[in-house]
Structures are given as C-alpha cells and as structure tokens.
Amino acid sequence: MALLIMQTAPVSAVELTITEPVVKGLEVTLSASLSASSNYYLQGALRAQSSSKYFGETKNRQGSWIDYVSSPDKDYIVSNFFLTEIIESTWSGKLSLRYKTDDTNYFGPGLYDLKLRRYTGNSTSSAGESNTLTITLTEPLPTLTPTQPPVTPTPSATQAPTSTPDPSALPSLRPSLLPSPKISPSAVATVAGTTTEIDLSSFGRTTAPSIQSKVSIPRMEPGLRYDRLRQVLVIGGGISLFFAASYIAYQKYLLRRKVEA
After folding, report:
1. CATH 2.60.40.2550 occupies which residues in the chain?
2. pTM of the model
C-alpha cells in the first residue's frame, strides 16, 4: 500500500524593518525594507516614552504630509498612505516623518518611540508593525506670549477752562441815592444874642456820588451835568451865607462887648 505524501510550499512571513533614523529639526528620515508577496500602505507614528498617544505626519508618494490617524477607514488609507512597490517579494526605500511643536502629544525635548504600521487597504485595522526605534527630539516647546488686557486710560480730572468775564456781560452797578437829611427850608442861628435867619432850602439836596462799574462807565447826559452844577452852586451859596451871617453876628458881638466895656 503506497502512501501519498503531499508537500505544501512554505508561506513566507511579512517582515517590515526600519533603520538609520536621522533627526533634523522637525523632520525625521529613516530607511525601511519590506519582505512580502504584495504591496502595503505605510503610516509612521511617533510617541513620547512617557505617553501612549501617537502623533506625527508621514509624507506619501505624492509629496503630501498626512497626519497620523489611529482608526482610518479604507478609502482614506488607499487615498493618502504611503504605498510600497514590491519587486520579487521585497521593497526598500526612504520615508520621511515630521512633527509640530504645538502638537498636544509633543512634550518637548526628550526620548520618543518611532515605528511604521502597514495596512492592506482592504481593512481598517493594521496588518502589523515594524520594529520600534528610540530617537531624541530636541525642538523646544513654543513660548506662550501672555495676553495682556487692553490698558484703559485713566480719565484725568478735566479742569474747566478759566474764562475771562465779558465786560459787557457784567451787571452794571446802578447809582444809588443816599437818603437826604431832612433839613428845614430855613434855619435860625443865634450868635451872641443876635438872631440871623439863613435860607437852607436847597441844603442837603445833593445826590450821593454814583458808584460806577470798573468795566462800564455810562456817559452823563448834558441835562444831568447842569442839574449837578446847579446843586453845587446852591449848596456853596448856602454855606457862604451861613458863614457870612456868623461873621456878622460875631462882629456885632465884639462891638457890643467893646461898648459895654
């Protein structure tokens, strides 16, 4: 009885390897090699060793930078990820990754893990990963500029401008008449026994000098000046008569004394 032994061809395992990472500023370049029977779509990933969150961007064959996506759909993978070109079950080439210092998963200078993930394009899940390399990123975190609130100018006390009074607007001081003393039209003076009657009817009829504003001096009418002059003459004449009568009475008094002596 003969036994039929069937032999199956060995299935080669898919192997993705990365080497020689070079960090220059915000960009990382590396060498990658793939052993497989079909092409794969590749996506790079960076992660701080103190974190579980991946980040970074991978440049595809069209020269576009594609953000890391943890759960991409099939169309997104086929349209954006880097595609290998398998020749005789192998492929090798250069890939470029970069990062942003304002990424929330970048924690500043330190050690970071770097790897590649491969996708078939027929599933949303990763078909495997490359080995992991440790690299040092040195770019500092961006300096946050504190936002200062707008300065509100403090209103200064505004002094009211000192205005020069308009002379025409000042109230004019009206001349006020002083009360005239009540003097009898005639007064009787007795000097040394001699009685003399003096006419003082116009005495005391003068008006008090008018108080004029320093700013505006009203002009005096001609009639007013004549009345003022007449009043002065009357007063002067009355005073003269009074002194004349007093002198005559005094002379009579002296004469009588002389006669009696």
Report:
1. 15-137
2. 0.53
